[in-house]
Write a structure and sequence with these properties.
Blueprint: H1 2-18, H2 25-28, H3 38-49, E1 69-74, E2 78-83, E3 95-100, E4 103-108, H4 113-116, E5 121-125, E6 129-133, E7 143-148, E8 151-156, E9 177-180, H5 214-221, E10 231-237, E11 240-246, H6 249-259
Length: 268
């Protein structure tokens, strides 16, 4: 009898293991992470916080992020960084857009934005929430775009194998921020976030997955776009080249003013 009970347990475990395979991230958007116990997560975080010794040399350029969040090693991304933020926070919501010689740039009010919106990917993990997956290649901005009619939408760039649903495919349309084109250049642009809408006669066929054209915005708003004079500060670090955007004093003053209104971790 006891032997039969053990046999049933073994068969049950085998069935459970067979049913715990991966899921299609291309369709579902957010991958299901490997199960991590609280004790395991604590050990992984402690290893990362101990001078980031567990990270490769190529990620030393992001060591400063430890002041604003924690590093975790999660499947299938490896080392990711989770910011310390309020519960309803989402990437690419606290900031504004500027037109530059490099194209559109996101001026972030998050103190960690110099890294997370010019490098890497974002994933809304089932267990950890929003986490950033680092890479060492710099871009003027890391986001996906949708534009149609008189609307502009953007979302943080997802990790390979992950697809964010289009903003009209979900009732809460996260992680997209969609605003009327007339409000795209506002300093507190997230205040104008709106549910996606299509004009009569328009449909998803009118959607363009590209940044808004400067000429189109000038036509819609009736104002000419002036390029913001930004420079790039390039510093050798950790075997890589760290690139940071240097804003002109007028833009930096806006950033400092907006950070004073936010509930975020203060700079060290």
């Amino acid at each position: 009898m006891m032997r039969h009970r053990w046999l049933i347990v073994v068969i049950g475990l085998a069935i459970m293991a067979g049913c715990s395979g991966g899921r299609d991230t291309e369709l579902l958007g957010e991958p299901e992470p490997a199960q991590v116990t609280e004790s395991d997560a604590a050990v992984e975080e402690w290893d990362a916080e101990s001078g980031l010794d567990a990270l490769s040399d190529s990620l030393e350029m992001f060591a400063h992020l430890r002041f604003y969040g924690s590093w975790f090693d999660i499947y299938p991304y490896g080392w990711v960084w989770r910011p310390i933020v309020v519960s309803d926070w989402a990437p690419m919501t606290q900031g504004h857009w500027v037109w530059t010689i490099y194209g559109w740039m996101w001026v972030s009010y998050d103190p960690f934005g110099w890294a997370t919106y010019n490098y890497g990917y974002w994933v809304n993990d089932f267990t950890f929430g929003w986490v950033w997956v680092p890479t060492c290649e710099w871009y003027p901005v890391r986001c996906e775009w949708v534009t149609w009619d008189d609307y502009v939408g953007w979302a943080p760039y997802p990790a390979p194998g992950v697809r964010f649903r289009d903003p009209w495919e979900s009732t809460d349309y996260d992680p997209w921020v969609v605003v009327p084109a007339t409000k795209f250049k506002e300093t507190e642009v997230v205040r104008y976030r709106t549910p996606p809408k299509f004009k009569a006669g328009s449909s998803e066929r009118t959607v363009r997955r590209e940044p808004p054209q400067s000429q189109t915005l000038e036509r819609i708003t009736g104002h000419s776009l002036q390029a913001t004079d930004v420079t790039l500060d390039k510093i050798p670090m950790g075997g890589q080249q760290l690139t940071r955007v240097v804003l002109p004093p007028s833009e930096q003053a806006i950033v400092e003013q907006q950070r004073g209104k936010m509930k975020t971790t203060p700079a060290p």
